[in-house]
Amino acid sequence: MRSAKIEVDWERRAPPQDGRLNKFLLFLQEKGIRDSTVEVYAGNAGRYLDFVKTDHPSAKDYTRFRESLHAWKLSRSTLNQYGYAAKAYHEMIGVPISFKRISPNNQIPFYFSDEDVERIFSVIPNVKHLAMLSTLFFGCLRATELCQLNDEDLDLDSLTLRINGKGGQEGINAVQWLHIPAEIKLSCKARQLRLFSTQLATLA
């Protein structure tokens, strides 16, 4: 018996505006911080303000927030991101704070064996999900890089993938290592053909 199809809204929407953070957004932009980093800082600052329940937190408020972050057992990089965001917000309101950056863990990370990878991919029933996860894993992509891929970034003839990387840098990844099912190739070619036809129609 086939499972019911799940309807998913794939439209990407801008995050809702938080009036408390408009000044902070402008402050970060004027410092020349990248847009992607501005979004992360603003989101972290918003959660910080929600926690302390004031738009003008004190150094003690940040200390209390920092202690709660450690209690949540967040990753080191996430703790540092919250620290940078809070430090920038306090700089804007004229209440400077300092925090100790947590050094990354330099131990050799856990990695999957070939058998582990095969077992993981073998239980993915959805072809689209398999294609996404295979591209993410074998291409060593960040989640944001995967989400930014468009139809025209994949060249099925040369088996290359154009990546919009961190900091606006572009790169080309070879995808010969990917086992691309025939149905995915046909779907991608059809999508690219429709895209090309749409572009021609706009020029007519």
Describe the structure.
There is one protein chain. The protein is mostly helical. It folds into 2 domains: 19-93, DNA polymerase, domain 1 (Orthogonal Bundle); 127-203, no CATH class. It is 52% helix and 6% strand. It contains 8 helices and 3 strands. It has helices at residues 22-30, 35-52, 59-71, 76-93, 114-122, 127-138, 143-147, 182-203, and strands at residues 154-155, 160-164, 170-174. Strands 1-2-3 form a 3-stranded antiparallel β-sheet, with no helix packed on it. Strand 2 and strand 3 form a beta hairpin. The chain is extended. The termini are far apart. The mean pLDDT is 79.
First-residue to last-residue Cα separation: 47 Å
The poorly predicted ranges are none
Secondary structure class reads mainly alpha
Largest sheet: 3 strands, antiparallel
The count of β-strands is 3
On the 0 to 100 scale, the average pLDDT is: 79
Beta content: 5-15%
The number of distinct structural domains comes to: 2
Radius of gyration, CA atoms, in whole angstroms: 22 Å
Strand order within the widest sheet? 1-2-3
Shape: extended
Helix content: 40-55%
Number of helices: 8
Order of helices and strands: HHHHHHHEEEH
